[in-house]
């Protein structure tokens, strides 16, 4: 295990191999790709949030000389409701088809209705005006209350709630209910001396990736069709396109471009199937790029939520019961992250009596997509706010209160299994020792603290490690690099092989080059793809030993490999990796290692964040003045990237807590579909995010790795909102804490 | 014998919070549970992940376990 191990490369801060291309503009992103004969696709989007399509006539567009193809939902081969694994979750193929191009009904403002491919981008945009659509406008359902109302307009007339104790018989806007329990909450609350019970709300927010969705597709009926896409998972783009268009997987080749951010939002498809239809119909490669406005209106945001939480504790601080009811907006089609919300909300705490129920509710907004630790930030925000209020009522330090109740190895979670080794206690203790927590809260400021939990996942990864005759090589992986993972792969391979990392060049290969690789998400890449890299490197070592044994005319058992050198245990001979590669042609050909894993044993991760804010009592404007993110990484392969993940999660969570929200008018139209009005934090808004890496190794990984990409966005909502609450001496139950909202709370203080 | 602990949802189909099983492999486990609790056929057990002594296994088909193992069926996890 890694705890006492000395590493040669793991834990160092090497220069990222993709850095030069990115800072010089040489890296190719989604919109950078061109093909000969390429034409442009554009999408006609719904001007209504909820309407029946009474008539859709594309004949005038089709007749225009600049138009080479038109696509509508009718161009999809017949698809039926069927769950299939695509991206990071199970998806209903019929819902996916209806989301990509609407069928009979539009379910949100911006919902795609038809697409045009024309000789130029401008011609395609102009030709959209030639499509005639008649709508029967329906009342939009824009909030949970509106969706749950007795007489609510239905988005889907055939949707029957799943998971109810008494099976439902009539349709509603509630797709499903989930329930988890442990112990007896009623008995637990009966033992409580102090109870906090409140309802908390979070808004619809966007992941805020800087690069809009973009693709280039070339249909081919004699060879694999080509898809170039900005995606977190090109193998799942292939799966979705082939499923929707009834193409064999081998008929679709997907190349992942460099990616300008995804955060979960690029784990599904919007443009690629449409571009494939247009390319097939026109016989030309088709390029499609979303505008920023389209990204906001029509790509998947994170769920808005409402969480009713009740927590009871004894005067000693021991929590005796926790209970919650969660409602998550799914957007236009079922499938919010309500489930992970239910599973994570109370996992930081070892409490005997727990009950959580969750509801997945459809509304007339774009279908939600994953966003870092999907479901956990919303749910755990509610729990952490209540925890801080309860600590205050008990007159306990919030860290002491959490330590008294902290989950640890052996804690039975509400979703079933007992936790293995985890690092929440270590994170809380590190938080208490931190210079931030040891400092005084400045006058006029408030301080908040919150914990967070996320599972992390493993899954399928495949890697090939090819060596060249001079001992350099290539790591061929299938995980799009969204957070610096190529450097981590270099370092893990180099650690196993005992050579310098820069002798191995990591590349992200297309879907024809490697077997299936799961999408980059779930904080899985350094863990699972890293395990495939380690396996491939170990395969290489076995081959190196065998080749050296052949040269020395001894058995493989009579050789050993250490620090890049093969040793002859039956004599004094030794050969470096490079020397063996140089003679590979004499011993059977070149050397190539393989690693194909479906990685088990992903290590859950906990984090604790501290936040100090200053609130302008006259305007309600809130500034974060100090922020510290503490998280268990298991083992930080490349500490700079781990710190970057902590900081990135913190900054996105700060934005969620302070300013970000979709603002809709009464017609269900988003009024702030651009970065000028949808306010994500800028570097100039924030202090340096301080980080503390805690390392409690994951025993299931050769180097102790846990995922780090998602947990960091879970605590900020509670940490920031608690700090605001402390600064204005009012309970905060709703975010964002934007200036109007905070001012309203200040003015209504009495 | 290994112990299977059921979620509240599965409990509605089994009428029990936990059960002991003779099985020491995932395939035998599914067969034994379906024989013992026929209502579980509607639960889609094969679509769930398995937690084996706290280790989450998304694709457990080939999993074997000891007679002291603690098992849970858990929804497959999505993430971003």
Tally the structural domains of chain B. Answer: 1
The CATH homologous superfamily name of chain B equals Beta-grasp domain
CATH architecture level-2 label of chain B? Roll
| Mean pLDDT figure of chain A | 96
What is the fold-level CATH name, i.e. the topology of chain B?
Answer: Ubiquitin-like (UB roll)
By DSSP, the count of extended strands of chain B is: 5
Q: Provide the low-confidence segments of chain B as ranges.
A: none
Structural class of chain A: alpha+beta
User: What is the CA-CA span between the terminal residues of chain A?
Assistant: 58 Å
CATH top level of chain B?
Alpha Beta
Structural class of chain B: alpha+beta
Description of the molecule:
- The complex is a heterodimer of chains A (750) and B (80).
- A 7-stranded mixed beta sheet of chain A has the order 3-7-1-14-11-12-13. Chain A has a 5-stranded mixed beta sheet with strand order 9-17-16-15-10, sandwiched between helices.
- By secondary structure, chain A is of the alpha+beta class.
- Chain A is built from 20 helices and 28 strands.
- In chain A, helix 15 links the parallel strand 20 (473-477) and strand 21.
- Chain A is globular.
- With 80 residues, chain B is an alpha+beta fold.
- Chain B has one domain (2-74): Roll (Ubiquitin-like (UB roll)).
- Helices cover 22% and strands 25% of the residues of chain B.
- In chain B, a hairpin with a 2-residue loop joins strand 3 (49-52) and strand 4.
- Chain B is globular.
- Chain B starts with a strand and ends in a 6-residue tail after the last strand.
- The chains are: A alpha+beta (750), B alpha+beta (80).
